[in-house]
Design a protein that fits this description.
With 123 residues, the chain is of the alpha/beta class. The chain is built from six helices and four strands.
């Protein structure tokens, strides 16, 4: 079975799969913005923190990428502030569709780079 680690964890706890794993790849997380909107500064950890805090809204999903983002926000010490203005979506495609429809210049999304690339030409 090929699945994100969080899915494998859930299945292993339920006894549906064995806990042994072999990584076969990874997908990075990126920042997505609407066309014509200035990109947030993510050039350093501190810049990312400030961009997250300054954003009008931050969109991310409830799936495996979103689970990682939740952990990242806690590690950065900005979880409470960002979650208060976050919009959560069921999957990466929903995040990208939300950003395309959004009129907020100060909003950006966090998602799997593979998902961002799929929507890059739809803006």
């Amino acid at each position: 079975m090929i699945a994100p680690p969080a899915v494998l964890d859930t299945l292993a706890r339920a006894g549906a799969v064995e806990s042994a794993r072999v990584p076969v790849g990874k997908v990075g997380i990126g920042v997505a913005i609407r066309a014509g909107v200035a990109a947030p500064d993510i050039g350093s950890v501190e810049a990312l923190k400030q961009s997250l805090l300054a954003a009008d809204s931050v969109a991310f999903n409830r799936a495996s990428t979103g689970l990682y983002v939740e952990t990242l926000l806690v590690r950065l010490g900005v979880a409470d502030a960002v979650n208060a203005k976050a919009t959560r979506h069921p999957d990466g495609a929903s995040v990208m569709k939300h950003l395309l429809a959004s009129s907020r210049a100060g909003e950006f999304g966090l998602g799997a780079i593979t998902e961002i690339v799929l929507f890059r030409t739809r803006a």
